[in-house]
Design a protein that fits this description.
There is one protein chain. By secondary structure, the protein is mainly alpha-helical. It folds into two domains: 104 residues, no CATH class; 31 residues, no CATH class. The protein contains five helices and two strands; from the N terminus they run E-H-E-H-H-H-H. It is elongated and about 60 Å long.
Length: 139
């Protein structure tokens, strides 16, 4: 069952960004088709976890952040088109995960397996440089 992303919800966890109700478990009366602002939030904005974060998705974002969003897109079946720019909103918890994702580094062995699985020409190129390949294989 595919659906389009509603800007009034967290792109990752589908929480309403007006009243912070988990929309996977309960519905609310908020207009989630409109982009919320800090003043639209019901209750106290300073309550832990009740902040919202806007992100502009473009080709300029870090590759691991793009992967993070693409995995969510596939899991929740949003049908987002990553070839064009668009905006998303995240709750505090998901924003932290999103920001941490760009700091994720692969171990050399995981990097090597990704290269082997996704890029045969790249692996062939690296195999010509035996020292780099040995370093990646030994971790």
């Amino acid at each position: 069952m595919s659906c389009s992303y509603k800007i009034g919800t967290c792109y990752s966890c589908q929480k309403c960004l007006y009243c912070f109700v988990d929309l996977t478990k309960k519905s609310c009366a908020c207009d989630i088709t409109k982009k919320p602002s800090q003043t639209d939030i019901c209750g106290d904005r300073l309550t832990r976890g009740h902040q919202i974060h806007n992100h502009h998705v473009s080709s300029q974002i870090h590759s691991s952040q793009l992967t993070f969003l693409q995995e969510i897109n596939n899991q929740l079946e949003y049908e987002s088109d990553f070839s064009i720019e668009f905006d998303i909103m995240l709750c505090s918890a998901c924003n932290s995960r999103y920001e941490r994702s760009k700091k994720t580094k692969l171990s050399p062995k995981k990097y090597l397996s990704k290269i082997q699985n996704f890029s045969k020409p790249m692996y062939k190129l690296l195999s010509k440089h035996k020292t780099i390949l040995r370093f990646l294989e030994n971790g």
